[in-house]
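Entry for the shared binder. Reason: the reviewer on the internal report wants the predicted structure included alongside the sequence.
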Amino acid sequence: MKIGIFDPYLDSLSGGEKYMITLAQCLSKDNVVTVFWNNAEDLENVAKRFSLDISKIRLQNNIFSQDYQLLKRLLESSRYDRIIILSDGSIPFVFSRKLLVHFQQPFPQIKISLKTQFKKMRVDHFFCNSFFTKSFIDKEFGINSQVIYPPVEPVVKKNKKQNVILHVGRFRARNIDSGDYKKQGVMIGVFKKMVERGLKGWKLILAVGLQDEDKPKFEKLKENAKDYPIEFLINLNKADLHKAYSTSKIYWHASGFGENLDENPELAEHFGISTVEAMGAGVVPVVINAGGQKEIVENGEDGYLWDSLEDLINKTNSLVEDNKLWEKISEKAIQKSRKFSGDRFCKEIKNIIEQ
């Protein structure tokens, strides 16, 4: 089967790109898979960042570029049995035998035109990364999409645990209209307050994905953490990131805090890959009760969900002060993480391709 894949954010090195190129990797084992993109280096960077095998994946000029003529795109797309796209809120018009559209986030401000309604009729399968995303996409587009959770590989817990609270996330997101999308500044403020209230012997580590254009604003974030036991790890490779997971005890996530998520659901975490990665390494999640996090963590069983900053502090302190409680929840977190394996993902993707 000849399959084409398009991701409009391929140069952003985010979880969505891991999803799409892992999808391509899975399908390339038994099919001829082509990624539509003009810059080979971007694809190589995604493969390197997430340790993906792209050796069987072909690269072709981006037929979805604005510079590509419509008739030429239609002719080229007709040569494919399946085309799979990550939607930026739009639906392309193509002549492939089947079209599959994936959504990674809600698009609450989108207006569905008659043209979009017509193009929607050409889509054979819609699928989302979480039930959180699905709840908005189905309403916005008038569809009944399938949920296929992202693939999350287990992190082997080899190193001795230390008194570390860890957060993993990009510093900024170019396609999200928020200066502090991951709320790293909020978490720094909470940790500083805990230290001022007497927390000793613990460290906050923020493992941050950082791009050159964001460095000036990032320096201001670092300045706010000065003189506190707060450490920043920048653009870690896979091995070093796994080491950070395997040595940490508690995982924090706060995307969506303080936002009106009914009006701007895109500001919440749409799934939470880093939360699952942390759980796989036995790191107990203490994450915001919003977005896709609620589908990952069962409060009080394999982690904690919090609704306010004081709630975050109290639930974190319960783990700090009771190591037996931490050990119990840590083991359950490991077990829960196995639900999101890469093998499960590949099987589900292959099933929808063969329909």
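Summary line for the report: The chain has two domains: 2-148, 164-339.
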